[in-house]
Amino acid sequence: MDSEDDIVLHLVGVPHVAKPMEGVFPGKGYVLIAILLLGGSRRMSRQTIAALLWDDAPEEKALTNLRQLLARINRFWPLDEPLIEVEGSNLMAGPGVRYCDLAQIMARRKSQVLAERVAVVRLVRGDLLDTLDSGGPDLSQWFRSERERFRRQVLALAGDVLMEMTQFARAKKSDIDEIGERMLVLEPEREESFRALMEAYGRIGDVEEASRVFDDLKKTLRKELGIEPRPETVATMRRILANAPRPRLQVIAEPEVLGTIGQIAPPPPALRNLLGLPRVSLFPPQPRPGEVLHPLYRMLIEDIANDLSRHATFAVTAPHSSFGVADTGDRERLAALRSGYLVTGFLVPGSQKMALRLTRNPGDEIIWAAEYQVGLEDLVVAFRMISHRIAKTLASEIERDQLDRLRADPKPLAYRHYLEGHLLFKNCDLPGLRRARVEFQKAAAADMDFAAARGAVSNALQLEWLMLGANDPSLLMQARREAEAAISIDAGNSVGHWMSAVIALHQRDYDKAAEQFLEAETLNPNSADLLESHGDTLAHLGDPDAGWQRFQRAIELNPFPPDRYWWGGATIAYFREDFDGAIDMCSKMENDQSVLRILAICHGNLGNKEIARSYGARLKDMYPGIAASDVVTLTPDKKGNMKDIIVRGLRVAGIT
Questions:
Q1: Are strands 16-17 and 9-10 parallel, antiparallel or unpaired?
Q2: Strands (E), 145-295
Q3: Is 574 helix (H, G, I), strand (E, B) or coil?
Q4: What percent of the chain shows pLDDT beyond 70?
Q5: Which DSSP helix (H) or strand (E) runs through 359?
Q6: According to the model, what pLDDT value does residue 364 have?
Q7: Strand 84-87 relative to strand 90-93: parallel, antiparallel, unpaired?
Q8: How far apart are alpha carbons 413 and 439 in whole angstroms?
Q9: Structural contact between residues 560 and 324, judged by C-beta atoms closer than 8 angstroms
Q10: Which of 95, 254, 353, 440 has its CB 3.0 to 4.6 Å from that of 456, i.e. a possible disulfide?
């Protein structure tokens, strides 16, 4: 059945035949078809059916009435395929019932495809055999029990559909409206239906509509039953309101003007060969003698390095790797960075200055040296001056105009919170993520024009949502709002586009994810963090080989990366069905909590039963009640290739 238009016989709502025919379809014919459908595929005897339809008539009269009814059904049914098949003294539903709404509802309500279950709910335009008289005592009891069962099944299905369609904080309001209409038609005073609707609107961020539903519920309960909503419903509304966005002043970026009318935008940059680009590595400054370096100074240099990665005419080593080399003093690791330029420095004794110099490597030729005021209140100015100086030295004249597109200058306190957040935002553990998010939110609250802080909040929220099993759509919804805010403040900063792409991927908006990532990469072509994330997304979009190329380039820029790189690399390898490679990536992580699903699936597919079961047991401890279907639902997979791999691996791991 391709569409609702193919339905000819309607038994749900007001019974009717939606096709021209000669005569009138008999009323008890609708009941007979419903009896046969609800009885399953089994045959039913004529005596049983006749006794139910005419329970107040003698058996012989009832059987005669049944014969006449069958003849009328055959005479007035407008299609060639019969509704009823007769086998001796038994009756059963015929092939024509596939054109019946009730048959479609029963056949498709347990489908694994969300769109099919949504279509089932849309077929419900009222109660079972609505408006028909119930008949004698036996038939009246049949109507009561079957209608009650039908309503329970449809309402449960509608609740599940609402949950699934809004699970990733993305659904059309009109679709939720339609499902809600079907639920309230069946039971207008059912509080659970109102609550399911409130939660659905809340998950997509439509607080106004959730409030309207709550108000409608209160009016209905007071008018019809004289009661107030239950405490759990009030708590639901309170939670939705708590997650509502706070109004805040935003700066809207002016749209860019094309140089020529109708000019086609240049294509996004292809994967460049880094060997052709000059490369610079930035190292943390040395502390004053006898002192410990304040961690914010490390973060200042790291932020400068990350910001410089937007330039296309030179490459910047990811600070995670260059800082690791500086901390260990390993000469072999220094050579592995393959940098032609080094930025080193120290804090000047007896002052609030940082001395920096840019040298050519090898040879230690000093290209420039300078001192900068770096009191905690001077960090913003230091950031801007150092970034400009390095870029002016290494970037071409064509690239200089990009310097004017640096993020809006944050206030000193905001910038300090931003750096504090990045100190906590290193590896994949939930407490660290949450503490980092708080610092980023403080930075955004102190300076509402700080695009990078808003993007960092978005990143922290999205990772927290993922670490919690993707069961809290409000986190993903908040992450989306923060990404959109970052873009509106500074459309030239890649972080907003980057996070918008990641969130679109999890919301199954695959086209937007691909488009936003290409936009981000155009703005920031040599960011190791962005390349790793883009590679992970390409794997989910069905091109893991292209994703692997970007991941390798990210590792080239950041050869000693944090855990989240290996998480992304393991995901790409797993999509390439390189299970050994994925396991090897996971082994490089300090904390494997975030990759337990990958490890269980990969070991399961390799037949490592005992190891797979150990990871499966840890997954069950972390996510009680987890099922393979939960992992399938959580995994954004545009081509749908991973379902069998996930189910097969988790089955070996003891998760069914």
A1: antiparallel
A2: 279-282
A3: helix
A4: 91
A5: strand 353-360
A6: 75
A7: antiparallel
A8: 11
A9: yes
A10: 440
369: three-class secondary structure by DSSP = strand
Predicted confidence band at 151 (pLDDT cuts at 50, 70, 90)?
very high
**Chain mean pLDDT for the chain:** 85
pLDDT digits (tens, 9 = 90+) for 210-245: 999 999 999 999 998 899 999 999 988 988 887 765
Q: Which of 387, 378, 282 is nearest to 324 (CA)?
A: 282
**Tokens 């139910």 map to which residue?**
52
Mean pLDDT of 159-178: 90
- Of the candidates 285, 200, 298, which has an alpha carbon nearest to the alpha carbon of residue 240? 200
Residue 521 clears pLDDT 70, i.e. is over it: yes
Q: Which of 95, 106, 82 is nearest to 34 (CA)?
A: 106
Kindly state the percentage of the chain with pLDDT values over 90.
45
Count how many Cα atoms sit within 13 Å of the Cα of residue 386 in the half-sphere of its side chain: 31
CB contact at 8 A, 319 and 305: yes
Report angle CA 589, 593, 596 to the nearest 5 degrees: 95
Flag whether pLDDT at 652 surpasses 50: yes
The burial class, CB within 10 Å (0-12 / 13-18 / 19+), for 586 is: buried
Q: Which tokens hold the place of 543?
A: 């091109």
Over the stretch 246-271, which tens digit does the pLDDT of each residue have?
Answer: 544 333 333 333 333 344 444 444 44
In the chain the first and final C-alpha atoms are separated, in Å, by 31
Per-residue pLDDT of 424-469, as tens digits, reads 876 667 888 889 899 999 999 998 888 899 999 999 999 888 888 7
- One-letter identity of residue 61: K
Secondary structure, 3-state, 494-540: HHHHHHHHHHHHHCCCHHHHHHHHHHHHHHCCCCHHHHHHHHHHHHH
| Residues 30/72, Cβ–Cβ less than 8 Å | no
Contact 452, 495 (CB under 8 A): yes
The identity of residue 441, as a single letter, is: Q
Helices and strands in the chain, H and E counts? 28, 10
Q: What distances in angstroms separate CA 502 from CA 99, 513, 631, one per listed residue?
A: 42, 6, 18
Backbone angles phi, psi at 550, to 5 degrees: -65, -35
Judging by beta carbons within 10 Å of its beta carbon (0-12, 13-18, 19+), is residue 35 exposed, middle or buried? buried
Q: In what order do the strands lie in the sheet with 84-87?
A: 44-45, 90-93, 84-87
Q: How is residue 562 annotated by DSSP?
A: -
Q: Please give the structure tokens belonging to residue 477.
A: 């919804």
pLDDT of residue 406: 42
Output DSSP code: residue 258: P
Tell me if residue 17 falls in helix, strand or coil: strand
DSSP β-bridge partners for residue 357:
344, 369
User: Dihedral, CA atoms, 591, 593, 596, 599, nearest 10 degrees?
Assistant: 0
Q: Which two tokens stand for residue 327?
A: 């901390």
Cα–Cα distance for residue pair 628/614, rounded to 1 Å: 16
Does residue 396 surpass a pLDDT of 80?
no
What is d(CA 108, CA 3) in angstroms, rounded to the nearest whole number? 13
The C-alpha atoms of residue 528 and residue 625 are separated, in whole angstroms, by 37
Query: What is the Cα 621 distance to its own chain's centre?
Result: 23
